[in-house]
Amino acid sequence: MGLERFRPTENMNLHVREAISGLGPAWLVMIADIDVASIITGLQAGASWGYHLIFVMLILTIPLFLIQDAAGRLGTVGHVGLGEAIGRRYGRRTALVAALPMAVTDFLEYVAEYAGIAIGLALLGLPIFIGLLVAYLVHLAIVVGREYRQAEVVLLPVSFALVLSLAASVLLFHVDLSQVAREGLSPLQPYGDPSFRYLAAASIGAVVMPWMLYFHSGADSRK
């Protein structure tokens, strides 16, 4: 009977450890949204339309949550990645067809990421070629090593530094809260303007990216 009293605490500790273990993939998928393409899209949206696209961004959190939640459940409960799940349900050929568009968009995403690295190196006054080569070698070591844990150990501190830098940059600019409420939170936006629609579509593409579903479910299944 004495041991029974300790079981709830042990179970709670187990749940806490499992939650912390799942934090890594979830956090990295979240940070993957804050990539070069997303930052540039956000900068352009803000420069062109001020606070007006905030309402669109808030609405996008709903499908983003549902999609990421589905991918996380697939990996943690089903113990499979999205590609493997498609293959089991619909066959290997269908899984390959579904993966091809993802591979194309993933390649284009890498092009955008390395272009962003080059821009960052140029702004810092560092040699672009050497910096890109170092970034590529680090990326290659992570991929070839196929050790998710090692990649997580490297990427988590870097991602925390990124979040802190973004938070610090917010303090450098004054935010007009009354204007945010008046323009950003209003559902009445200039949807008929082609420029607004273009940036809204770009924002949707920056938020819901197919490769994230593969990565999220695959990372969770490995954890």
List keywords for this structure.
disordered N terminus; mainly alpha; 223 residues; single chain
Word description of this protein:
The chain is mainly alpha-helical. It has one domain. The chain is 82% helix and 0% strand. It is built from ten helices and no strands. It has helices at 7-32, 36-49, 54-78, 82-90, 92-124, 128-145, 148-170, 177-184, 194-207, 210-222. Helix 3 (54-78) runs parallel beside helix 10 (210-222). The longest helix is centred in the middle third of the chain and has 33 residues, at 92-124. The chain is globular and about 50 Å long.
- Amount of beta strand: under 5%
Mean pLDDT: 79
Overall, the morphology is globular
Instruction: Write down the Rg.
Output: 21 Å
Order of helices and strands: HHHHHHHHHH
Spans where pLDDT lies below 50 across 5 or more residues: 1-6
Question: Helix coverage percent of residues?
Answer: over 70%
How is the topology of this model organized?
Layout: H1 7-32, H2 36-49, H3 54-78, H4 82-90, H5 92-124, H6 128-145, H7 148-170, H8 177-184, H9 194-207, H10 210-222
Helix pairs in contact: 1-7, 1-10, 2-9, 3-9, 3-10, 4-5, 5-6
In short:
By secondary structure, this protein is an all-alpha fold. It has ten helices and no strands. α1 packs across α7, α3 packs parallel to α9 and α3 packs parallel to α10.
